[in-house]
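Our collaborator T.R. sent over the components below with a one-line note: 'Predict the complex.' Nothing else. No constraints on interfaces, no templates requested, no preferences about which chain binds where. So this is a plain run: every listed entity goes in together, and whatever single assembly comes back becomes the starting point for the next discussion.
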Amino acid sequence: MSADLTRLVDPRSIVFIGASDRQDSIAQRALENLIAHSAFDGELYLVNPNRTEVFGRPCLADISEVPDTPDLAIITTPAETVLPSLKACAALGVRFAIVFTAGFSEVNEAGQKNEADMKALADGTGMRIYGPNCPGLTNVNKRLGFTFSPAFKTDLRPGSTGLVTQGGALGRTIMQSMDRGLGIGLWCTAGNEVDLDTSDFIDHMAEAPSIDVIAVVLEGVRDGPKFIAAARHAARRAKPIVALKIGKSASGMAATQSHTAAISGSAEVNAAVLQQLGVIEVDDLDELVDVASLFALRRPRGDEKIGIFSMSGGSAALAADMIGLAGLDLAQFSLQTIATLRELLPPFAAIANPLDTSGNILATPHLLYPALKAVAEDPDVSITLFPIPLDYGKFIEIVCDEIIRVRTETGAMIIPVWMSDRTGSGYANLVAADVVPIRSLRNAAKAIKRWRDFGQRLERDEPNWSPMALQAENIAPLGPAVTITEVEAKAKLAAYGLPVPAGRLCRDASAAAAALSEIGGPVVAKIVCAAITHKSDIGGVKLGLVSPDQVSTAWTDIVARAQSHFPDAPFDGVLIEHMAPSGGIEAFAGVHRDPVFGPIMTFGLGGVYVELFRDVSRRMLPVTAVQASAMIRETRCFELLQGIRGQGASDIAALEALLVALSDFFSDPAQAVLDIEINPIWVGKRGQGVLALDAVLTLGSVR
Amino acid sequence: MSADLTRLVDPRSIVFIGASDRQDSIAQRALENLIAHSAFDGELYLVNPNRTEVFGRPCLADISEVPDTPDLAIITTPAETVLPSLKACAALGVRFAIVFTAGFSEVNEAGQKNEADMKALADGTGMRIYGPNCPGLTNVNKRLGFTFSPAFKTDLRPGSTGLVTQGGALGRTIMQSMDRGLGIGLWCTAGNEVDLDTSDFIDHMAEAPSIDVIAVVLEGVRDGPKFIAAARHAARRAKPIVALKIGKSASGMAATQSHTAAISGSAEVNAAVLQQLGVIEVDDLDELVDVASLFALRRPRGDEKIGIFSMSGGSAALAADMIGLAGLDLAQFSLQTIATLRELLPPFAAIANPLDTSGNILATPHLLYPALKAVAEDPDVSITLFPIPLDYGKFIEIVCDEIIRVRTETGAMIIPVWMSDRTGSGYANLVAADVVPIRSLRNAAKAIKRWRDFGQRLERDEPNWSPMALQAENIAPLGPAVTITEVEAKAKLAAYGLPVPAGRLCRDASAAAAALSEIGGPVVAKIVCAAITHKSDIGGVKLGLVSPDQVSTAWTDIVARAQSHFPDAPFDGVLIEHMAPSGGIEAFAGVHRDPVFGPIMTFGLGGVYVELFRDVSRRMLPVTAVQASAMIRETRCFELLQGIRGQGASDIAALEALLVALSDFFSDPAQAVLDIEINPIWVGKRGQGVLALDAVLTLGSVR
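Returned assembly:
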């Protein structure tokens, strides 16, 4: 599935089609980047039928004249010439082509057609196409710019963050965070993504030795399984993906679609899928930079605690607030650390975590080094958060230099937070030393939380799990939908080990009365008719029946009501079913097919918890035992199942087993399930089990 | 209650005690600020017994030699000399004294004693003291610096934001946001706040004509009623207070207390009080600046809609996301606006809200002005959000200049969002024009939401309401606490119009049986004993009794159980009470006394909604009808009361009336209530009313 992009990002030879030195043309700017600002030392062939020389280099009239098979073609010629040029490149055996040219699917249908032809060419020949309508590719770690952006030469801080974007502008926002110290080794942004796309770049970076963290600005995912595969690849390499998903609100989604024509998908499903894949979702671009910068320093274990080194009481308290509100833990300084700090610092310093040295330390800057070292090396401290509330010229410059010194000497994770809008020489020194100051304590705490939690997630990951959507047949349409009756649905579920109440489908009143004695009361009587989905609304359900008379009267009454509401609906009879004991909790579980990511299971407690508090969890299928357990535990209602206010614990193990069985059932292609909702699920006390009390099941055709 | 601080912030004459020109001394730096960098043209008297001349000005040996009554004294002498100096100033009739000197309550008990003496002096003489242990006061709009900070001369961007902080460092963080364009007219930061405090400065700024918005960094409130009065003063002037509260988490609170010794209070109560007072709480310092900058432009109506003007598809979508996620509304462009934009912009621009001109507009910068003007002047657009994703030198400089031009010409609220970490000439031009670029779209949306919502809040404010805490007797301790029985509590509540079930206190079994026929069944029987708070746990409650036999057996059984568990507790009998009809919803309401802010009512639906979802609302007393209505409606459970899933609506009007009656009851000093919880409150369907089913009431002594 994944392409080896090594020769795209680091080609040995390049053919440049549409070479020109006309000032400010795209070709001229791209060539200048390549010749003057890149460290490219391979062969470069220029092609332009109207020129014999460009930038003092010979120019070929046609691609076919290239005496070699270049790894990469760069195409800058007008839209109508792009496809013929690509064909000529493919004929030559070129492996990759970058197309800067705009004027395709983003402008009209002819452009869409043109792109479809390009895609067919790529599929048919194996030549991979990057673009069109893109600013190109920037390999900072190798100092290679296959881009016409005049910013290439200014944005060259190498590093272990790989960047993948769809739109170019927001990618450049992130590239400019180099001015905040972030090193970005490789930036891929393939515009209309006719062939190579976000997933390919993630997949490449998952293997790329110089990349430790993959930052993604994600406008939409067209090919769910491909994205999933790339994300799983990164997860297997324990390489974090940090993503900002755009198009989360209705209007954002509309804007994204007009922009990239990519499918944005439902925000809730997207978020659940990203979480399940181990992708760290962030809320804005600055957070993307913050989180990436932490991963670029170190991978988390998941249990890291925080030390706060502050020079003012207000900053100390604010930092402690942010740590506490983010759900992080402050470290407990050792007696040794406390003793060292007491010896170093004046009596009015607050020797605790958070540490407040007081601003007087600026007057005795030689104390900064030993005090910071004591905190950073405390055995309980994994991260030292260092709030810098204000710029204060030379004084703060010394502070920043000591931060750099202790970081360098000890390798400790010391995270300075530059809180002021004034960025002076201290800030500049941090950035020059590749330290990324975070710009607010709130952002710092959020970033550390996401970083730390990734460590916990890594530990729980099931390396061999892969989602059902990767099996293509499971996300293809399954033909016309048919909703079957509750009785049929429960029979199918029971065959997969899902517990359902004892029941009988009764075709007359006397059979109903007989069923009562067979299965024992109390029973419930329910109309069975595929056309009737809201059974209660038409009086099609009677609860708590205990005598044969009650049951037989209920049968007659229910049938009469059903026939008066739906005179023409073929009905199967009345289901007489043993009632669940009182005292249980109601839950629900369902699976639907997301058009991008395939089958998604949703779990929650029923009723108002879902309607008012949207308290549900979601997973792509298959749901393993480990995942079922996590799904149940991550709802806020979990406490109810554990037994709140003196209630005993519910049968959580049985509920987990039900979710796994539901996943197995749905995952069996022979069942051809389109979607299913089991609602309510009765959850008894521990040992009492669970029961699928009702189920709505829609089937497709089995192919 | 409030002091007139006009002559503190703008004195006609000053006496400076401890005058010195010793390089880098506090006195020298303060005098330099006053003489060289301030526009002070009043009389300045210098006092130092060891000098005859400082900075070429004559120096008096003693305060008593000052031939005038200065408005302000500035004191820089060592801690032990401060009190005598203050006394001399008071003797002279000086109205205000600023004490820079440190070494008071922040270091030891002697310092605390010293401060207590200073406070007594202020109270006794009427001379108001600012400090000690503070960096002073900065009146930027008058260019007056009564501060030893070397930063005074650099932080001089005037404006309509007033700043109040407790710690100096975080105040300076905000002052440095002048580098992001915020003008700050006056900054008060009184350190240990021995006399004048945060509330006095808010109170002053509420009247100050040059201040439109009050930004506060609040570490703790010692005097709740004083703070409330100041906040109400600002509310009456419709002047927004934007506050960052520090000490919200347990560790943050601990750090704040060690820092300022101010009472931080419970985070939840603090947040509720701030909200009720109309104070806009923000989550971090950058947000404080963002929100203040919007208020400095204009006051909101509460119904403002947003236009998005963007130059890239990604920014358009991200901006729309943030607006949507924040709960704001995008404007609907008029046909005229659409037509204008279509005419101006190329065919591939996305003409909609969000508008995406595409990056090509940078090549035709003359279109920026008319296009931006069209959006900003659209009748449905109140705020134009302009994301600037990257710095691009001259190109973005032009963009910024056009933003400034349209803002200036039309007066429209155009908010540029500078998303990049690279701040180039465009950014500098915005700042130079007093435009405050917000640094992320997330922050921009959050700030606009808070700004807009203030408009809605202003509309709902009850100008004559003032909280009960302002009446001092109500927050004083009321003597030893006594918990009374349910029967006594309900009698008291009933007298204030709170509906309670019909019931009889029965001292023997036959009286209980008789009570059944009087009040009608079903009834509940409950032990009545002030010592037993968890009646159900000991079998002291029997539900659903319908026959005289059942009631009389219940009486005997309950009494036996109570006596076996609490053999020595004096019990009053058994309450036989009519049961509430089935089908109601349970709620709870209680009032407790916060040590800082006085009586606080808490409301919520009972049980798991509160325990799992913390879904409660709070108000300071008195709770008016308007506030009771809002309290009920702001819980997420409100939908349950409205009638979710086909259930009818509950009797919300009766519930509102109950909350108001509870407030009235608690507010009556004759009742001497310390705290009360009514739990559960039965809420019937519309027209059925509500009932206080149980109540725990603790009384203090009436003085």
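Summary for T.R.: Chain B has five domains: 1-133, 157-297, 301-460, 502-578, 585-699.
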